[in-house]
TrEMBL record:
It holds the Pfam family RVT_1. SUPFAM superfamilies: DNA/RNA polymerases (SSF56672). The keyword Methyltransferase does not apply. NCBIfam families: group_II_RT_mat. The keyword Transmembrane does not apply. This is Group II intron-encoded protein LtrA. GO terms for biological process: DNA damage response. Keywords: DNA damage.
Length: 371
């Protein structure tokens, strides 16, 4: 049993989360009082326990408070304070730090105050089961019981079993910094989050002032607890749209899974499958011509529907039989073995360099420490 599941059961929230998941599956979330579930005593204590077990709990926000400042409080006093903050919610200023990237550039990271992190965790716990019921099955980033290994395994399956060796790479320009707030809130309502009080609080969170930058008009800060879930809500529309072009294409007649594939092959539909991890994704197709058609269609969809732009320099089509394609720190390539092509995955050159540098640092630490 995972640590998270033990927490859910200890604070008696697992049954509630399962119920929310089933309601979402049945499209019956309208009228559910999500706000009251979020501010329930057990949900607040669960959020506190999860935050406390995270190493980031020792990192202070602009108010210089860490989880220790909440630990010393009386439980009733603590719950009362959090509920009061939720009642008339006003986000506190977000601290911004720049994290170095391997390529020499930096990645901006937003660090909310501890109070806001607790509130975001409370909201995430309740919204996640509703969203999970609606998310596409082959999106793997920041989701329960999914990892990069599952995403790579899916890529290998498509390359081995179905000979999808032409891959479309789309890089969305500054995705986290450019998420359209109005569009996101509409997507949340559509996915099943219908409590207007909760949506109003999230709207305020998106407008939380950032040190030296002021109030953002777009984007969701990397580093915020809710950001990964919100990013999956935004891109779930893209997942479902691509799946609807082939995999989940609606037919007039009811087909079994085995009979649907040959029926679709008789149409003019283009066979394609998406594998996504957060804002990093690949679309697998059968040939070069289809791949470029998909490329232009996705570019148009991202711009028109998600109000985002793609990076022309980083977006491309790759024939995996000729060149490898990098995904989540691995290189994918189709190599010939006997009469067929099979998938070969290896650690990317960039990741090999990072691993070597880490080993060198560890060796130096060992050598410098006394025996």
């Amino acid at each position: 049993m995972s640590t998270l599941l033990r927490y859910y059961e200890y604070y008696q929230m697992q049954e509630m989360f399962d119920w929310l998941y089933q309601c979402s599956l049945a499209n019956q979330t309208f009228g559910i009082n999500l706000y009251d579930i979020i501010i329930s005593e057990n949900n607040i204590l669960l959020a506190y326990r999860i935050i406390k077990s995270n190493t980031g709990s020792k990192t202070a926000g602009t108010d210089r408070q860490t989880i220790r400042d909440f630990t010393i409080k009386n439980q009733d006093e603590f719950i009362k304070e959090i509920r009061l903050a939720m009642k008339d919610y006003k986000p506190q200023t977000v601290r911004r730090v720049d994290i170095p990237k391997p390529n020499g550039k930096t990645r901006p990271l937003g660090i909310p105050t501890m109070r806001d992190r607790l509130i975001q965790q409370m909201i995430k716990q309740v919204l996640e089961p509703i969203c999970e019921a609606k998310f596409y099955k082959h999106s793997y980033g920041f989701r329960p019981n999914r990892s990069t290994h599952h995403a790579i395994a899916r890529c290998q399956f498509l390359m081995n079993q179905s000979t999808f060796h032409h891959v479309v790479d789309i890089d969305i320009q500054g995705f986290f910094d450019n998420v359209n707030h109005t569009k996101l809130l509409k997507q949340m309502y559509t996915i099943g989050i219908r409590d207007k009080r909760v949506l109003a609080i999230i709207s305020k969170m998106l407008k939380a002032p950032i040190v030296r930058q002021g109030i953002p008009q777009k984007g969701t800060p990397q580093g915020a607890i809710l950001s990964p879930l919100l990013s999956n809500i935004v891109l779930n529309d893209l997942d479902q749209w691509i799946a609807s072009q082939w995999e989940n294409f609606p037919t007039r007649r009811h087909y079994t899974k085995l009979n649907k594939y040959p029926a679709l092959q008789q149409t003019k539909l283009k066979e394609m499958y998406i594998v996504r991890y957060a804002d990093d994704f690949k679309i697998f197709t059968k040939n070069h011509k289809i791949a470029w058609k998909v490329f232009h269609a996705v570019e148009g969809y991202v711009k028109a529907h998600l109000k985002l732009n793609i990076s022309k320099e980083k977006s491309k089509v790759t024939n995996l039989r000729r060149r490898s394609s990098e995904f989540l720190g691995f290189e994918l390539k189709a190599i010939k073995k006997h009469k067929k092509y099979i998938a070969r995955t290896s650690v990317s050159g960039k990741n090999k360099k990072i691993i070597r540098e880490k080993i060198v640092r560890y060796l130096k630490t060992i050598q410098s420490s006394p025996t």
